[in-house]
Amino acid sequence: MEKLKVAVIGCGSIAQYRHLPEYKMNKDVELVAVCDINEERVNKVASEYGVKAYTSYEELLASGTVDAVSVCTPNYLHAPISVVALNSGVHVLCEKPMATSKESAEAMIEAAKANNKKLMIAHNQRFVASHQKARQLIENGEVGRIYSFRTAFGHGGPEGWSVDGKDSWFFRKEEAFIGAMGDLGVHKTDLLRYILGEEIVEVGAFVETTAKDFGDVDDNAVCVLKTESGIVGTLAASWAYTSKEDNSTIIYGEKAILRLEDDPNYSLVVQYTTGEVVKYELGKIQSNDDGGQSNSHVVEKFVDAIINDTETPVSGEEGFKSLAVILAALESSETKQIKQV
Questions:
Q1: E strands along 209-262, which residues?
Q2: What local confidence, expressed as pLDDT, does residue 294 receive?
C-alpha cells in the first residue's frame, strides 16, 4: 500500500515535540514537507527530517504533493489554513482550539464535508488510558449517578515550553485570541464531555490575567459548568502553577469517586462508598516535561481514520462543541453573567 504523504504547517514546539516525531514513527506515513514563515526554523526542521521546506502554506497546498497536513500554527490561523487545505482536497489534523469563533469553526466543518475530507482536532486527553477507563466505568453504571466534578490543567506557562519563550505568539491576543483557556481549558471541556458522555449547557466564569505582565491574554481562569442532566462542577486553567503541572480530574458519583491523574503513582484511583479502593497503574499522561517521549496517539488515530476511511475520533463537530464552552466562558467573564453554551 502506498504511504500517506503528509506535511506539517507550523514548526513550533507542538510540531517538534509531537506531530513530526509521531508521523516519523508511523509506518503508514511518508513525511514530505514542513512549512513555517520563519525561514531559519523551517530550514532547520526540514533538514533534520530530510523533507522539503516551504515558507508559504498556499504554495505547499497548491503543489499537490500531500494527502494530509497537521496545522500547528498560532490559533488565529487554524481555521483559515484548515479551510484552504480542505478545499485543496487535503485531510486536516488541526491543533486546539480549532478556531477563534463559532463561524470559523463551522467553516472548517463545512469545508471538510464539501470536499469529503477528514478533519480531526488534536484533543489528546481522550486517548489517555485513565480517561478512557473512567468513561467506561461511568458508562457501565459502576459510579452510579454523577453529582459533581472538578478538573484542572495548569503549568508554569508557555514561556518555558514554546520555541520563542516570552516572545511567543501565545501571549499576543491578536494571534492567540485566548490564553490559558484556549491552551489548556479547551482540553478539559473536551475531556469532561467525553468522560461524562453529555454536553455542557451553562457556564459561569472568571477569566483573568494575573501572572504574566508581558502578555495580554488570560493566564488564570476558573469556570463553573453545568451539564444537560444537571451535573455541576469546576474547571480551572492556569499558566501560573509554577512548580508542578496539574492535570487532574475528580468525578464525584453516587457509588464512587474517581481520581484521575491526581495520584503521582496511580493514574486512576477509584474510592467506592463501600470503603473499597481500587488503584490502576495505566501509564503516565503525556506532559510537556517528558520531552515528547510518549505517544499522544493523536497522529496515529488521524492516520488510521484516513487509511480505513472511518470517522475521526475527534471530529470537527466534537471540536466545535468543546470550543463553544470556552467561548461561553469568555462571554460570561466579560458580562458577569451565566451564559448558555
A1: 220-227, 232-238, 249-253, 256-260
A2: 64
Q: Are residues 148 and 136 in the same domain?
A: yes
Domain span at residue 137 reads 127-294+322-340
pLDDT digits (tens, 9 = 90+) for 312-331: 999 999 999 999 999 999 99
Q: What does pTM read for this prediction?
A: 0.96
Write down the number of H helices and E strands in the chain.
12, 15
| 72, 95 contact by CB (below 8 A) | yes
Indicate if 176 and 107 belong to the same structural domain.
no
Which secondary structure element, helix H or strand E, spans residue 192, and what is its range? helix 186-196
Q: Dihedrals φ, ψ of 209, to 5°?
A: -115, 105
Taking residues 239-251, report their average pLDDT.
Answer: 96
Burial class (CB in 10 A: 0-12, 13-18, 19+), 185: buried
Crossing angle of helices 186-196 and 316-335, in 10° steps, is 120
| CA–CA distance, 17 with 295 (Å, rounded to integer) | 10
